[in-house]
Amino acid sequence: MDRHSPQKPHWLVKSKNQKEEEGEAQAVIIGGMVLDIHAIPSIPPNPRTTAPGKVRYAAGGVARNIAECVSKLGTKPFMISALGSDIAGNMLLEYWKSTGLSTEGIRMGNEIETPVVSIVFDTEGESAAAVASVESLEQFLTPKWIQQFKSNISSAPIVMVDANLSPVALEASCQLAAEVGTPVWFEPVSVAKSRRIVSVAKYITFTSPNEEELIAMANALSPKHTFSPIQKEASGITSLFQQLKPAISILLENGIKVVILTLGSKGVLLCSKKHFNFLHSIGPKRNNNNKRLQETINRVCPVGRFSGGGGGGVVHFPAVSLAAVVRLTGAGDCLVGGVVASVCGGLDLMQSVAVGIAAAKATVEVETNVPLQFDLDHIAEDARSVYLGAKVVFSQSML
C-alpha cells in the first residue's frame, strides 16, 4: 500500500456545512477489504526459483476497490466489511481513514484475520498466479452485522454486493435491499464465487461478469443445460454475442434486469430486456450532489442519444485505446465503480457505462488498484469517445 495519502481532486473537497446541507445519499458497498501483495518480476518468472523484481503492498478487495473508485469520482460510498486488528487490517483501516470516508460499517476485532491476497504478475501486467486467504469475510461479515445498517441501505441509491460474501450473508443483503426498494448490483469476483448468484438472482438489478463468469453463472442457474467456454480470440462482436446469447438469456430469464458483460479489449456489452431508461424510476434515491461529474459528462455525452433504441436489447460499447498498460488488476472494479458513481450522480445508464470504461482505462495505466485521483477532463474525453462509438447492435427481440 502506498505510504502517501491519496490526493483528493479539489472539486471533491467540501466543507462540513455543505455536506450537512446537501444530505448526501450514499451508495452502500458490501464485501471484501483485502491487503494485496503484488509480486512484479522484471524478467519472466520460472517455477522453483526466484526472479528479480519488486514486491508491493496495495489496498485491495473487489468491494473496497469499487468503493474507493466511487469516492474518487465524487460520489460518497458507505462501506460494510470486516477487518482484523492486525498489521494488515490496521494498514487498510488507516488508508481508508485517510480518504475521509466513514469506518462505521467496518467490523474490527482481534478474532478476525484480515483478508490477504498474494498475486504474482507476468511481465505483461497480467496475473500469473495468486493465492487468496479471505475466509474471515465469510465468517465475520454476517447477516447480523449487515442488518445493523438497514437505514443506510434504505436511503441508498444502490447497493453493491461482491461474491466474497457467504451465501447466507449475500441473501440477507439482497433481501434487505429488496424490502426497501434499493437496486442491487452483484459483482461476481471470480468464476468459482460467481455461482453464488443462484439464491439471489431474483433480487439483482445489475451484474457485471466477464465471459468466464457469465458461463459459470448460467450453468449454475440452469443445471439442465451446459454452457461451454467460447472461442473469442478471432470473434467479432456479432459472433461473440451469438455464442454468449444463450447464457445471457438465462441470467435475464432468472430475474436479473441488466447484464454488463465485460469483454476486455473488445469493450462491454450492455444487455437488458427492460427499457434502458428504467433508472428514472429510482430517481428519489439518486444522489444528485455530484454536480460536476453530471454536468461535465452531460456536455460531452448528450442525453437521449439512444432514445430510439432505448426499449432494451444489446448495446456494444468499445474499449478506449490505451497509452500504456501497467497493470490490469483493478480495471474491472473501477469499471463498476465508474458506473455506480455515475448512476448515483444522476447520469443515465448509457452515460454511466461510458464513464465506467473511461475509469477502467485510467486504472490500467497506474500501479495501484485504484488511481490516486481521476482527472475529470481525461475521464470525460475518454467517456465521450466510448459513448459516441457505442451502437445498439441487437434488439430486445433477440434476447
UniProtKB/TrEMBL annotation:
SUPFAM superfamilies: Ribokinase-like. It comes from the Eukaryota. InterPro entries: Carboh/pur_kinase_PfkB_CS, PfkB_dom, Ribo/fructo_kinase, Ribokinase-like. CDD domains: YeiC_kinase_like. Keywords: Kinase, Metal-binding, Transferase. Residues 27-285 form the Carbohydrate kinase PfkB domain. Belongs to the carbohydrate kinase PfkB family. This is Carbohydrate kinase PfkB domain-containing protein. One of its GO terms (molecular function) is pseudouridylate synthase activity. GO terms for cellular component: cytoplasm.
